[in-house]
Amino acid sequence: MHGRVKVRTTEEEKARKEKERQEKLKVFKHVMQKIQHKRKESEFDKDLLELTGKVLSSNPDISTLWNIRREILNIFKKNNEVEEELSQLYDAELHLTEYCLKINPKSYCAWFQREWVLTTRADPDWDKELGLCNTYLKLDERNFHTWDYRRFVVSKCKPPLKDEFDFTTEKLYSNFSNYSAWHYRSKMLVELYPDLKGGRPIEDTHHKQELKIVQNAAFTDPDDTSAWFYQRWLLGAVKTVTKAVVYVVTPVKTTLAFNKPVEHNFVSSKVKLFCNNDLINGEWQSCSGNQYDVLWIFKHSANICDDLHIKMEYEMEDGTTQTISSVKVNSNTYVGRNDISFEINYSKPVVEELITQLDACRQLLAMEPDSKWTVLTTTVFLHCIDAKGNYKEVIENLHTLKSIDKLRAGYYDDLITKWSIEDQLAVDYGNNNLEFKISFQDKVTSLPHLQYYSYCESVDLSNQNLTSNVLPSLVMLQHCKKLSLENNKLTTLRNFPSLELEVLNLKGNIELKKEEVDLFREKCNYTVLY
User: Fold this and answer.
1) What does the domain layout of the chain look like in residue ranges?
2) Confidence of residue 2 (pLDDT cuts 50, 70, 90)
3) Cα 106 from Cα 80, distance rounded (Å)
């Protein structure tokens, strides 16, 4: 048996490790007690710097100790410490953070301390910091802490933006699966290549080029999500113009809906309402009480009666004025609708690229029909290229996604609802009736674009999959008289908005308690069916 190394048993090994842990804990507690005592006695000296440094060298995530070190350095600075010595202290602090980051490259505390030192000292070396970022990103190109720190350094030393953009290209070709690099790239892309003529966020040539790069990434590893997310961002990188979509003038209430939220100053400065060519003065109020809103109520004292000529003038973003005439839909009620479109305004070169990539997606689907990202991207391409023409295939694909990606079925249901409502709106805005009823087969799960139907007096949302979460959004139905929520999934009437209804139908909501409905009836002055 002589000359053989003794192998510890499992119990012996556990006992040894526990003894080591207890010894380390004892030392840690002793040092922490000394630190706390010195801080309590306001002994902010180099000895306290040394003590905190020892602890942080083994555990860099104790934020209290970094706070103490900043206190000490600030005191030295206020006491007019010799600049050379102060600079040495800052250097030592940077060395400590470097050591700590080797222990834990994702230490929030260490990265923050490094930022603090460089913004506090008088002589920061930003070029050196940029080189440090390069070193760390060679070790781990996906460390988002390093990417975040790099953006901070770049904001200080301001290297050529093109160099940074090329740096992300280099990192992505090294490894496409890099959320941080894609995100950083998106920020620079808009700054480097804006479409100055067309008003789009990205110039056409580079928009098309980015789509090619991201397609290459997505097809290299179809299961990696980072490239797919960047692709979705690229497809959404189009300028949307703020538009007034519909206004209603009645003796009781005047409202104006926009395609996206606007603030009070915007609507009060951009919109003018005329009655028989006379300007109507009044005050705009948010429908929901928020600073930004999609529906605004106009408080005025004009007498609205029969046979008036009412129009609205709206100043567009390009400075031109658009006139929206109204139509009298019944006695003393005037509705003015704008032309609406949910088509995405891509340039011709980008559309051509999308068609090319759609063909590539179809080829990939032929080989991997259950690839959810490919199905989703195919669906998004179809919607972006021609939402109306491809509507049927888009909805079919979303149903396919619900079956192969069950965990996100709710997301696909919401997309079906949104795109189906957009398809129906084009039809509804072509007639002059004041009714809204779901005309497609799929049951809605949410109420997108409800402000577009703010003019309706009758709204039928029966036999859907709506829950009580949608109730606050019903505030958009400011002119509704008859509202049906029959056969939905309401569980409570809390947050039901104040509306000037005549009839509210709540039948068939089996989880809605009769006691709550009775209390609700007592508070409202319209008929509630249950």
Assistant:
1) 13-124, 244-331, 434-529
2) very low
3) 34
In the beta sheet, which residues pair with residue 248? Answer: 255, 335
Task: Tell whether domain 434-529 is in CATH 1.10.1610.10.
Answer: no
**Which residue is it, tokens 């053989």?**
4
Buried b (16+ CB within 10 A) or exposed e, 253-269: ebbbbbbebbeeebbee
Average pLDDT along the chain = 90
Please tell me the distance from the alpha carbon of residue 282 to that of residue 311, in angstroms, as a whole number.
Answer: 15
Q: Are 527 and 504 in contact (CB under 8 A)?
A: yes
Read off the DSSP letter of residue 6: P
Fold of the CATH domain 244-331: Immunoglobulin-like (2.60.40)
Do the domains spanning 244-331 and 434-529 agree at the CATH topology level?
no
Residue 410 half-sphere exposure toward CB, CA atoms < 13 A: 4
Identify any residues that bridge with 284 across adjacent strands, giving them in sequence order: 298
How far apart, in whole angstroms, are the C-alpha atoms of residue 378 and residue 384? 10
At 70-100, the pLDDT tens digits run 999 999 888 876 778 888 999 999 999 999 9
Distance of CA 148 to the CA centre of its chain: 19
> Which ranges in 281-390 belong to alpha helices (H)?
348-367, 372-386
| The model's pTM | 0.80
Q: Which two tokens stand for residue 356?
A: 């090319």
